[in-house]
Automatic annotation (TrEMBL), chains A, B:
SUPFAM superfamilies: Homeodomain-like, Tetracyclin repressor-like, C-terminal domain. Residues 8-68 form the HTH tetR-type domain. This is TetR/AcrR family transcriptional regulator. Residues 31-50 bind DNA. It comes from Streptomyces roseoviridis. The lineage of its organism: Bacteria, Bacillati, Actinomycetota, Actinomycetes, Kitasatosporales.
Amino acid sequence: MYSGCMSANASERLIEATRSLLWERGYVGTSPKAIQQAAGAGQGSMYHHFTGKPDLALAAIRRTAEEMRAAAERVLGAQGPAYARIEAYLLRERDVLRGCPVGRLTMDPEVIADDELRAPVDETLDWLRGRLTGIVQEGLDNGEFSGPMRPEEIASTVVATVQGGYVLARASGSPAAFDTAVRGLLALLSPRTP
Amino acid sequence: MYSGCMSANASERLIEATRSLLWERGYVGTSPKAIQQAAGAGQGSMYHHFTGKPDLALAAIRRTAEEMRAAAERVLGAQGPAYARIEAYLLRERDVLRGCPVGRLTMDPEVIADDELRAPVDETLDWLRGRLTGIVQEGLDNGEFSGPMRPEEIASTVVATVQGGYVLARASGSPAAFDTAVRGLLALLSPRTP
DNA sequence: GTCTATAGGAAGATAGAC
DNA sequence: GTCTATCTTCCTATAGAC
């Protein structure tokens, strides 16, 4: 397991550097040279541990996907009513202007064209939708939510609002745009108290 | 005005080729050489009409932004109740798997870092949010919508759901994911008939 | 495991001829 | 307006020494 310390072995440093660069610049915008410099590793080191850029990117994407899933589960798996858990997920702290390290990759043509690189992205967002579907269903079962809603549709809307919130925030250069979209969704989801 | 015919002048062909490549590959993933080949123009031609890649990209982005705004206005400016117009906007035909040619640019580090390139993106999404805000306000005024909703928040949620819908569709490789998110939002927006 | 050397091609232009 | 030549740096490796 990765220790997180500055002097981890080269393989670890390369993966972490790649994760950071993929988040910031995407796959197309990330070169092996930039990775090596960020990791403090030479070319020989990189090509010893990985067969090339796609191989290293795959390791980085898989780890990022796993971390995102774990972070979501920490919030969604908490105790409490369905609405509260969805609200906690939507309001959880985020590095909004950096965008979503997983969702971002969907705009990368070379990630989308490569089934192996796309798979962790697809699986992570799919898992998240499934997890939220179950929670919305809970809310319907216990009478917290009402109306004609289909759980899997609401779950998709929640994930889409978050992903689109990043787009609005980055376009405007301000995290406020993300929060506004999320508050709108929470108002629509909010159990009516007539 | 651009005639759309195959043998337009080189400047037009360069702009159209750049629009297409920016949509598909983003700014970082689009090279002058690729643009010239797609446009059937040489280097001399490109650098005669434009000072460089950023200049050409700016012309392309401005045109794409203008077209997106016009397309949205055709649907949002139609006659009818607020809900129907928002529904028409959400359900309008889209090249879902290609993503949004404007929103996509927010994931490009060099677009976001350059205020001139980012401006058309920001202005277009901001215009769209404003236009939707007015329509939601209309719906509240005439009693079509009820509840604690703030128009500008709902408008942001609508735009975010669309932008995030593209992310889900591209991740899964299927336009269905977009539609699911949109249907969830429509269910939440749907005027209750108790 | 890591380093340096080497390599063919692309990126992003500039200069000058036609 | 468009073409070709030229330039520097970067991209994405492979080979072989240490």
